[in-house]
Design a protein that fits this description.
Blueprint (H helix, E strand, L loop, with lengths): L1 E2 L4 H5 L14 H6 L9 E2 L5 E4 L3 E7 L17 E4 L1 H4 L16 H6 L6 H7 L24 H7 L12 E4 L7 E3 L9 E4 L3 H18 L7 H10 L3 H18 L6 H18 L8 H15 L8 H12 L8 H21 L21 H20 L6 H21 L4 E3 L11 E3 L3 H20 L8 H28 L5 H13 L6 H18 L4 H15 L4
InterPro entries: Fun_TF, Zn2-C6_fun-type_DNA-bd_sf, Zn2Cys6_DnaBD
GO molecular function: DNA-binding transcription factor activity, RNA polymerase II-specific; transcription cis-regulatory region binding; zinc ion binding
Keywords: Nucleus
Length: 561
């Protein structure tokens, strides 16, 4: 028997729980306005042996049972019977309007009331062609998108959070979908989500493919493991995962976006609207993670990306800034939203929209692990982007301070981790990019953002000395060679560590910004091959970046004077 420590909320988030004298709630729960629940004061654990007093191991008595031990009789095993398909059929409640999902969180958070939000959602039209998917037949092919008729029949109630049919009881002892015909009632039941096989396939696609993209700076992989678990009892989270997976699978297979993706997106937005209409105290990490997922849904089809869900995320974070240092899924969602904001900065040349100072209260500044190290350099890069793209922050002292911060970070990083193998690039030896092997996704991300910081400092940091003529041209060419070395390192990290698919996104974004600096023909062709590989493997369209780089290289090689 030992005393229990920490409240349930802090244990779930792997945080130290501190309770001041006289308080019934811990400090973290008070700051985040969460319910603080402590377990029993004492916990009992199983004992396998007892040591005699003063005798140690010699006097140890094993707590085992002999063959003559008398045991009470137990219930007989139940025979398998008919399937329980009838028990698992969903309850059909009252009909609700179907919505397409073109409304955005940005439009909902901008107004003080949500009276017009539902009208915006209901007035939008599907922008995708509906595939001619059969809605009849005994079995649906789970690898093909479901039809609107099938989805409407399954989700007429939108899976409300209060709906009793969202999870149906699944009898204990049944593992193959069969239910005993004659058995005594069990005192407990395992909740079984009422998902179709297609929806289970979509959730698993999120776990296998998309979740790891979002967890590159999170050792606990909250989006890969925790978010799908919450989706089983949080309908708004579930619909966001289904929408992302459905759209991404269509992009990977080069098919038109299925109607099911817009259906799930619309259902998710409807539930988000309902939660936003409630008091701010229930705007929890589930809502924030859902909005971040909606931004991913918007981002993966970046040809028509209007960046509106990101604006909604920034408004939600400004309304509840404690998310950035709350730990657990909430803080992981904040760091993911920051990386999403950085993507917009790189593609549109705008300063970050998030309050970067709110991230400085995070516990990552303890440098406790690889993920903390990666998040810090991501924040430094966001601050460099703010200097580069904002007219209000042009002081040379700000640039110098950030340059020192980046180098100080690198000094501490060297004491935490280094590449397990490094070989510099050599185009004469068929090695256009350096080989840089790492052992974890946060390490890859950290080094990529470090090189991104160095490249942007070279491109945008003002020079104290103004040069002209040959000296100015010489400094420019030297700068472009240094930028090229950082860019090929970023691509090398992506190619050398294929288990970190998110590294391909970072490499693509930076090549779009500074790829024109690359002059070596071999490296240029390998960059184009790399971008083509990213589109084929990840479904992220890189054709526009390829065309841009070709035009830039053509102009620089053969200027039209």
């Amino acid at each position: 028997m030992r005393p229990g420590k920490g409240c349930a909320s802090c244990r779930d988030r792997h945080l130290k729980c501190v309770t001041e004298s006289g308080n019934t709630s811990c400090t973290r729960c008070l700051e985040a306005e969460r319910q603080c629940t402590f377990g029993p004061k004492y916990l009992f654990r199983q004992v396998s042996h007892v040591d005699g007093p003063g005798q140690g191991v010699k006097g140890r008595q094993e707590l085992s049972y002999g063959r003559d031990q008398v045991w009470v009789s137990t219930r007989k095993h139940c025979k398998r019977g008919a399937p329980i398909s009838g028990l698992l059929s969903p309850i059909v409640p009252s009909e609700v309007p179907r919505s397409s999902g073109a409304a955005t969180i940005e439009s909902l958070l901008r107004s003080d009331t949500l009276s017009g939000a539902q009208n915006v959602l209901n007035s939008t039209q599907h922008r995708v062609a509906r595939p001619q998917t059969a809605s009849h037949g005994p079995v649906h092919d789970f690898s093909s998108p479901a039809s609107i008729e099938e989805l409407t029949k399954r989700h007429e109630d939108g899976l409300n959070a209060t709906s009793p049919s969202f999870c149906t009881p699944f009898p204990v002892g049944s593992t193959d979908g069969q239910s005993p015909t004659q058995s005594l009632p069990t005192p407990s039941a395992i909740p079984k989500p009422n998902l179709s096989r297609r929806e289970a396939y979509l959730v698993q696609h999120f776990i296998n493919k998309i979740g790891p993209w979002m967890d590159v700076c999170d050792l606990y992989s909250h989006f890969t493991h925790e978010l799908p678990r919450r989706a089983m009892h949080k309908p708004l989270v579930l619909f966001s995962l289904l929408a992302i997976s459905s759209r991404h699978l269509a992009i990977l297979t080069q098919q038109p976006e299925p109607a099911e993706a817009s259906f799930y997106h619309g259902q998710c937005l409807r539930l988000v609207i309902e939660q936003l209409a409630q008091p701010g105290s229930i705007h929890d990490d589930n809502l924030l993670a859902t909005v971040v997922c909606l931004r991913i849904y918007e981002e993966i089809e970046h040809k028509t990306d209007n960046h509106l869900h990101l604006a909604g995320t920034s408004r939600l974070l400004r309304a509840i800034p404690t998310f950035a240092h709350s730990g657990g899924l909430g803080e992981a969602a904040c760091w993911q939203s920051l990386r999403q904001d950085i993507y917009i900065c790189l593609t549109r040349g705008l300063p970050p929209s998030l309050d970067l100072e709110s991230f400085e209260a995070s516990s990552v500044f303890t440098f406790r692990d690889d993920a903390a190290c990666a998040n810090i350099i991501v924040l430094w890069f966001a601050k460099i982007l703010r200097l580069a793209y904002s007219n209000d922050h042009k002081a040379s002292t700000d640039w110098n301070r950030l340059a020192l911060d980046v180098e100080a970070w690198n000094d501490r990083r060297l004491r935490l981790f280094q590449p397990i193998y490094y070989e510099d690039f050599d185009t004469t030896d068929d090695r256009p990019f350096p080989v840089i092997h790492m052992i974890s996704p946060p390490q890859v991300t950290a080094l990529q953002y470090y090189h991104a910081c160095k490249a942007f400092l070279l491109l945008h940091k003002p020079h104290a000395e103004v040069l002209s003529g040959f000296q100015a041209a010489k400094r420019r060419r030297t700068m472009e060679r240094d930028v090229t070395s950082h860019l090929v390192a970023i691509v090398g990290l992506a190619e050398s560590n294929p288990f970190v698919e998110n590294a391909n996104f970072t490499a693509h974004h930076l090549l779009r910004i500074g790829g024109y600096c690359i002059t070596n023909p071999v490296q240029r062709q390998c960059v184009l091959d790399f971008l083509d590989h990213v589109e084929r493997v990840m479904g992220w369209s890189t054709s526009a970046t390829i065309a841009l780089l070709k035009d830039q290289w053509s102009d620089l090689d053969c200027p039209n004077d």
